[in-house]
Amino acid sequence: MNIQHSTPTTPLRARMISDMSGRNLGPASQTSHLRACSRFAAWLGRSLETAEPDDVRDFQQHLMETGTSICTRNRTMTGVKFLFRVTLRRHDLVAEIFSLKEPIKVPLVLSRNEVRRILLMAPSLKARVMLSLAYGCGMRAGEVVRLRVGDIDGEQKIIRIVQSKGRKDRNVMLPSDILGLLRDWWKDRPTEQDGRVSGPDRVIFPGYNGKHLSPRQISRLFKQAAKAAGITKPVTLHTLRHSFATHLLERGVDIRVIQALLGHSKLTTTARYASVATGMIAAVDSPLDDLNQTKRKARPS
Questions:
Q1: Three-state SS across 212-259?
Q2: Which domains does the chain have, with CATH numbers?
Q3: Helix (H, G, I), strand (E, B) or coil at 159
Q4: Which residues are annotated as catalytic?
Q5: What is the pTM (predicted TM-score) of this model?
Q6: Over the chain, what is the mean pLDDT?
């Protein structure tokens, strides 16, 4: 991924890229930080090396007054903070940066029937395989499109996800239905771009120039399938991952197993799915039921 895009590389930008690369920040984080600093520079109207504490305070006020969401505002200031703390060593400016508490939102989850309809309405075999991986294995969009032949272990019925979010490896299950879909897709898969790539390193979902599909392409296919399935909820491809975790929890799968399947570092991140496990919530007896039962027992025969 080219994190520099078409923006001219100034000495300050080059130093920041070097600092981020030296600290093993991933491409997505680097792009986000650079975009944040570009936004601050465009507002400031001059080099960020000339910024003063009042500028930092006023920029944060500007973000809030212009309706920037708390999540975007915090993400922007995280990038600016890296520049000031690491690259420029301006700790006086870092001291002016503060984070706002982000709202805690309950993940949107699809019912099993809604997931079934989406998979049935997938516009192609390729789309059905990718969406099945997203739901059936709880995989992120980027994890699905980056899959290679060597990541599929049909013998042990697992998929190895290599260096995903947080630079972590993990294993997820490989359901028989998905293995069958993968074999069907392999027969139709275009091979023009395989070239001299060895078997295990070949991408399962090739894109252009010998690379894999982009996450945007699978998200587009999901939106198309969801619309055809009559889903009116504001869903995204990540909703399938939320649904995967929630449905496992409703089936009684241990939450620590779900944590490992999702690749979460903290159990508290996984535990939030308990708040949307509708099957578990509906099965809980309300204390009102106890009151009504007591009244029925108290009635004379």
A1: ECCHHHHHHHHHHHHHHCCCCCCCCCHHHHHHHHHHHHHCCCCHHHHH
A2: 11-94 (1.10.150.130), 112-281 (1.10.443.10)
A3: strand
A4: 140, 165, 238, 241, 264, 273
A5: 0.75
A6: 89
